[in-house]
Design brief:
It is a single chain. This protein is mainly α and about 375 residues long. The chain folds into three domains: about 100 residues; about 120 residues, Serine Threonine Protein Phosphatase 5, Tetratricopeptide repeat, CATH 1.25.40.20; about 100 residues, Serine Threonine Protein Phosphatase 5, Tetratricopeptide repeat (Alpha Horseshoe). The protein contains 19 helices and no strands. α16 packs antiparallel against α17. The chain is globular, with a radius of gyration of 26 Å. It starts with a helix and ends with a helix.
């Protein structure tokens, strides 16, 4: 549906479904630049807002239009819809994660983080947008930390971090590469984000799966003329918070990351396969991988072995001096995972026995 035939629709909007379809179509036209913002705001006001608040009415109708008001960066309409009972999570929200449906908060952070979107983000958070309490996974807090130059010296933008953490987002959450929001912000030179996250308790010593911390990320671009000021400010803030360099980022930084990623994947595969230890021993001897975080949950080889019940590898790694008290990003050590694996096996065994056993009532009825 193009902007032209959106405007040409004359029949009134009488259902939530129709309202949602027209709202989604307007968003798509706007993002594809098929319609100017002024015209989009006019359609949003005269057609969608009127239908949501007057023709249909009710919280669901207001919610159906909320994402469009967010996408078109119109704080006044967002406020009006929320006051009318709109759900800040939207109508399609199914939780956070790789398969989750986008919500108004994600739209505000990913798509329209512009001059007034900070106020929209804060409105949605204050009105109760569902927090993402995951300790692992790429969260909206990571996305906000990657806000680029748009994260200027604006108190409203800095408040976004405070409201998100206060609502329940995990300030030290780890994405698939073990990076925290602080590491992400430092990697892009977002020194205002770095300062805000440190004030909220971000761990300046946290390292990603490749062994780099936030200060390493900031220092790698200090010598680049076009970004030196931003990264220099990041370094100053991080050092002031007690951060120390962990691993230099050389010119082969990206090549090194790819090499380590391949090595980690091979280690995990060998542990899961439970094969001859010779190949695993040779691989471990090539690098300092005994305490490396080899998967996206921050597990060491020992933890991976315990999780998969691989006793031979477990004994081998402990003999090599692996730290039995090391914990993953969820705070669980090898013993925690071993106990969990035993419980899962017992549950699966009981379920299999129950499914294979004829119900008592059935035998009596024969």
């Amino acid at each position: 549906m193009t902007a032209t035939n959106i405007a040409a629709i004359l029949r009134p909007i009488t259902s939530i479904d129709q309202l949602m379809k027209e709202a989604d179509a307007l968003i798509q036209c706007y993002f594809k630049r098929e319609i100017a913002q002024e015209k989009a705001h006019c359609l949003l006001d005269k057609r969608l807002m009127a239908a949501a608040l007057e023709t249909i009415g009710g919280p669901d109708a207001a919610t159906a239009v909320l994402n469009a008001a967010v996408a078109l960066d119109h704080p006044a309409f967002v406020r009006e819809l929320l006051d009318a009972g709109a759900n800040p999570d939207g109508l399609k929200f199914g939780g956070y994660g790789p398969e989750s449906t986008d919500c108004p908060l994600a739209t505000a952070i990913f798509d329209i983080f512009e001059s007034s979107s900070a106020s929209i983000i804060n409105m949605l958070l204050i009105e109760g947008a569902t927090p993402d309490r995951r300790r692992t996974g790429d969260t909206l807090l990571h996305a906000l930390a990657r806000g680029g130059d748009l994260l200027g010296a604006d108190p409203a933008r800095e408040q976004c971090f405070h409201w998100m953490v206060a609502a329940g987002w995990v300030v030290n959450a780890r994405n698939d590469e073990g990076a925290t929001p602080l590491i992400e912000a430092a990697n892009l030179g977002n020194h205002y984000a770095v300062a805000a996250l440190i004030a909220l308790g971000a761990d300046v010593h946290a390292i990603d799966v490749y062994g780099y911390n936030a200060l390493d990320m900031a220092m790698k671009s200090v010598d680049h003329r076009n970004v030196a000021a931003d990264f220099g400010a990041c370094v100053e803030v991080l050092v002031g918070a007690g951060a120390k360099p962990c691993k230099p980022c050389g010119d082969d930084y990206h090549v090194e990351r790819e090499r380590l990623r391949a090595q980690y994947a091979q280690i995990v595969q060998l542990i899961k396969a439970n094969v001859d230890l010779t190949e695993l021993a040779q691989l471990l001897d090539k690098g300092q991988y005994l305490e490396s975080r080899v998967d996206n949950e921050g597990a060491t080889p020992l933890i991976i072995s315990a999780k998969h019940g691989n006793h031979n590898v477990l004994t081998f790694l402990m003999g090599r001096g692996a730290n039995i008290n090391a914990v993953d990003h969820n705070g669980l050590n090898a013993l925690d995972h071993a106990v969990g694996a035993v419980r899962q096996c017992r549950s699966e065994l009981l379920l299999s026995m129950a499914m294979a056993t004829q119900p008592v009532g059935a035998s009596r009825s024969l």
